[in-house]
Amino acid sequence: MTAVQERRLRELRSRMLVRAFDYRQRRHAQGVWFRLRRVLAFAGEAYAVPPDEASRLIAEGHRPEPVGRELEPPRVILFVPAERVARIATARPLAVRLSAEMLAAEGLALVPFEAEARGSPTDEPEVRGRIPTGQP
């Protein structure tokens, strides 16, 4: 085997090890990244809030999203109206996307899009894609 072939073989093995690691990580996550992206898809704005403020929001009746407990370490992710977030002096705006900054936040206050402002948008069952039955 030539030196070029040996180098290519080492590179191929390295890529295979990285790919196997990625697949193993996704399998152990059991879909948490998909569920987190789904929650973020309903958010028009995102804010990092301190844990004490997140506790206050829960006490006011805002329900934490279950996906936050599935992350390690667990985080509090809440859908909160924009008016309420505006009253939080320590709220720090974040880009609505998976980023290191968002994952580092202990508490997340997500502002839903206006059409979904009546509560947590993930509470409602999925209705898109259902076959109409002809009944109201």
Explained architecture:
The protein is α+β, with helices and mostly antiparallel strands and 136 residues long. It contains 6 helices and 4 strands; from the N terminus they run ααβααβαβαβ. Strands 2-4-1-3 form a 4-stranded mixed sheet. The longest helix is centred in the first third of the chain and has 27 residues, at 3-29. It is elongated, with a radius of gyration of 21 Å.
Mean pLDDT: 82
| Strand residues, percent | 5-15%
Specify Rg, calculated over alpha carbons: 21 Å
Basic shape: elongated
* Major sheet size, sense and barrel closure: 4 strands, mixed
> Helix fraction?
40-55%
Strand order of the largest sheet: 2-4-1-3
- Taking pLDDT < 50 over at least 5 consecutive residues as the criterion, the unreliable ranges are 125-136
Name the assembly state.
Answer: single chain
Structural class: alpha+beta
Number of DSSP strand runs: 4
What distance separates the N and C termini? Answer: 72 Å
Order of helices and strands: HHEHHEHEHE
Q: Compute the number of helices.
A: 6
Per-chain topology:
Elements: H1 3-29, H2 32-41, E1 43-49, H3 51-59, H4 67-70, E2 76-79, H5 82-86, E3 92-94, H6 100-104, E4 107-112
Parallel strand pairs: 2-4
Antiparallel strand pairs: 1-3, 1-4
Summarize the structure.
With 136 residues, the chain is an alpha+beta fold. It is 44% helix and 15% strand.
Task: Describe this protein with a few key phrases.
single chain, 136 residues, alpha+beta, 4-stranded mixed β-sheet, 6 helices, 44% helix
